[in-house]
Design a protein that fits this description.
9 helices; 318 residues; 14 strands; Arc Repressor Mutant, subunit A; alpha+beta; single chain
């Protein structure tokens, strides 16, 4: 079906005859393939008599060959999928059965994308970037503050596209208070021994408001820049930035990157609310320490908080 998608990704009308001629199939076969696109990938194809067929909007398909070539240059292996449950889950599965590391898993769509604290991650076909890097590590690797380092790597890529994006503790990137990207780190292995780490990155790229229902304020690169974004170029830029920041983190720990992270920390000095299950703590957001823990002023006293189940909001955010 990918050959059909390549023809239709420009968002323009194509007649059934021209599609069939390009693919070397009958018009009846064209019709069946279009039905499969809608049924299997959740895409909408418009049909207008006398004009032909077109997608609901233009689409930027990922160029698997380009992404795999870059992964090879970086010393990574790469697995590309049209659709799967979760790029993070797939990376963990492959590492568990001995896949080489680092391992990049990237997909056009996810059926069960995951965010922090068990939340879902909306992952329509061909709209955004669903990107996971699996690593096999030995004990002693500096994990403290790693999600913040990854956030900084993503921030640098997005800001290079002239989008005014900042980081929010511990793993979100925001534009004007709206979420544009998120990070999910998952660990598997024995305490004190070798283990597997998967760095999951989701970036809202060409998805526009009104098309999907998401239960929080969000935006996308296309919405912010006003331009359609080439997702392959974005994936390549992300790979380069992520490799560089992971090397720095391994050499310096988060302490060496803390000042750089604080420079793009958008909630510093604001009144916040920290949630840990049913417990709620109000205070002022001071920043982070050398281990990436949140520095939070509560009743005039500075406290540090860290942990994957914590959620930070602005105090007036209901």
């Amino acid at each position: 079906m990918r050959d059909l998608l390549h023809l239709l990704q420009d968002g323009q009308f194509h007649s059934g005859e021209s599609i069939g001629r390009a693919l070397g199939i009958s018009r009846a076969a064209v019709w069946k393939r279009l039905q499969l696109l809608e049924a299997e990938l959740g895409l909408t194809v418009y049909r207008v008599r006398g004009k032909g067929y077109r997608m609901a909007s233009e689409m930027s398909l990922l160029d698997a060959a380009v992404i795999k070539a870059q992964a090879m240059e970086l010393g990574w292996s790469c697995s590309f999928y049209e659709s799967l449950d979760s790029t993070n889950a797939e990376a963990l599965r492959q590492l568990a059965v001995g896949a080489s590391s680092p391992l990049l898993v990237i997909a056009e769509a996810q059926e069960g994308g995951r965010g922090r604290r068990g939340r879902g991650w909306i992952s329509p076909f061909g709209e955004n970037l669903y990107y996971s890097l699996g690593l096999r590590l030995e004990s002693g690797y500096p994990l403290d503050g790693l999600s913040l380092t990854v956030g900084l790597a993503v921030q640098r890529v997005l800001s290079a596209m002239r989008v005014d994006v900042g980081v929010k503790w511990p793993n979100d990137l925001l534009v004007g208070g709206r979420k544009i990207a998120g990070i999910l780190l998952e660990l598997s292995g024995e305490p004190g021994g070798a283990y597997q780490l998967v760095i999951g990155i989701g970036i809202n790229v060409n998805m526009l408001p009104g098309r999907v229902d998401i239960d929080q304020a969000w935006t996308s690169l296309r919405a912010e820049s006003g331009h359609f974004v080439d997702r392959t170029l974005l994936a390549v830029a992300l790979g380069r930035s992520l490799r560089d920041y992971l090397l720095r983190h391994e050499r310096e720990g988060f302490a060496g990157l803390r000042e750089e992270w604080e420079a793009v920390h958008i909630w510093r000095g604001l009144e916040g609310r920290l949630l840990a299950g049913a417990k709620c703590t109000d205070g002022r957001i001071l920043g982070v320490d050398d281990q990436g823990a949140l520095r939070f002023e509560v009743a005039g006293r500075e406290l540090q908080f860290s942990g994957g189940e914590l959620s930070l909001r602005l105090r007036d955010d209901s």
